[in-house]
């Protein structure tokens, strides 16, 4: 039995949910999300809650039970409050700017790197902090990882793009390594 799967997903006021077979559409203040789930689970709307149960007794159905419930909970939270990831830019001369919906990064390459924002994603830049926000948790995480991948933090000086609060392990340079001999 899935402990997570047994919990119902509460639907707050102002959120509309449409369940049609395997497809679920959720609409709220921040946007609209839809997702098709497989036939291994059954999604039922009861008053102000969504309940998920395995459609069959197979191991695969039980494995998807809690996962589908969390996807639904994330969709409801996304259309109500949204999700955001913050990235920090470290390095002399490294900067970011939001041009329209796109993000332009000047981070030590010969040319600025431009990252286009997909539908439902917004970039916000304050000093050296880039905020990626949207209503779909997966897309926000994917775009934040794409921004970080442009210049990941390097271990010697710590320059690059990292998540806010991420701890980058620092290595000793050549001077420190040679002094120990």
Secondary-structure blueprint of this entry?
Layout: H1 3-6, E1 9-10, E2 16-20, E3 23-27, E4 32-36, E5 41-46, E6 49-54, H2 59-80, E7 83-90, E8 95-99, E9 102-106, E10 113-115, E11 121-126, E12 129-134, H3 137-150, E13 160-163, H4 174-179
Antiparallel strand pairs: 1-6, 2-3, 3-4, 5-6, 7-12, 7-13, 8-9, 9-10, 11-12
Describe this structure as you would to a colleague.
This protein is of the alpha+beta class. The protein has two domains: 3-80, Ribosomal protein L6 (Outer Surface Protein A, domain 3); 83-163, Outer Surface Protein A, domain 3, CATH 3.90.930. The protein is built from four helices and 13 strands. It has helices at 3-6, 59-80, 137-150, 174-179, and strands spanning 9-10, 16-20, 23-27, 32-36, 41-46, 49-54, 83-90, 95-99, 102-106, 113-115, 121-126, 129-134, 160-163. Strand 8 and strand 9 (102-106) form a beta hairpin. The radius of gyration is 22 Å and the shape is elongated. The termini are far apart. The mean pLDDT is 90.
Name the average pLDDT. Answer: 90
How many separate domains make up the residues? 2
Discrete helix count: 4
Query: For the record, what CATH class of the largest domain applies?
Result: Alpha Beta
At CATH's second level, what is the architecture of the largest domain?
Alpha-Beta Complex
Strands, count: 13
Assess the beta-strand content as a share of residues.
35-45%
Q: What would you say about this model in short?
A:
This protein has helices spanning 3-6, 59-80, 137-150, 174-179, and strands at 9-10, 16-20, 23-27, 32-36, 41-46, 49-54, 83-90, 95-99, 102-106, 113-115, 121-126, 129-134, 160-163. It is α+β, with helices and mostly antiparallel strands and 181 residues long. It has two domains: 3-80, Ribosomal protein L6 (Outer Surface Protein A, domain 3, Alpha-Beta Complex); 83-163, Outer Surface Protein A, domain 3.
